[in-house]
Input
Amino acid sequence: MHRNPPALGIDIGGSFIKIAPVDVDSGKLMAVTQTVRIPKPATPELILDLIQTTIRETHWSGPVGVGYPGVIRDGVTLTACHVSDEWLGYRLLAHLSEFVSAPVALLNDADAAGLAEMTLGAGKDRNRPDGGTVVTLTLGTGIGSALFRHGKLFPNTEFGHIELDGEDAEKMAAASVRTTLGLTWPDYGRRLNHYLGAIIKLLSPDRVILGGGISENYHQFSNFLTGNVEIVPAALGNSAGLIGAAVATTPDESEQK
Output
């Protein structure tokens, strides 16, 4: 029996939107993830139409959690790094609530992925009042980040955009850089280690969790990570964002945003 009702998890990306119903108590997906390519430009109207169509076609009537690739404050999208500039200052939560009758949660996509890992994945054992500091980093097209202190989320961090050797850090260490430049795993591991060194120096975390699809190849580059803190791969893979968005609809998690 569910302690909390299942929720529809929605992960908005720059190129794709991923949607699946989630058992928020276990983190298990209750159906195959729908992955829809987003035509350019990825405007708010286009994304909302895709979400509304999915909810209507699946007859979903429960809670809905949405992860957005940018800063969220009071239900408003304040940045638009990989989507249309029309998202700047967009009242996304209010527009979602116009066609979702159940509770709606809205948070940054990297925060959503981090929340999933802290609640159900590689950070679960540190999700406690004395759990220390945990940083989750989502390595993909860019670098998303989430910061937790004693299990509580400090939202909207942008540690992928710190300056590193005179440029945006994600231009050096994102997973996409390895592919674009054709880097070997050792070469990429050294780049990532350089970036992690800066993060560790800034935050002195107790654990760093590395997520994104590249976490499946953690063994290929882990030997090149020399930070003096615990560094572990994420446990929930590419589904972490939509799982975390769904988890954010539960009462305990919605209180901390």
The chain has a mean pLDDT of 93.
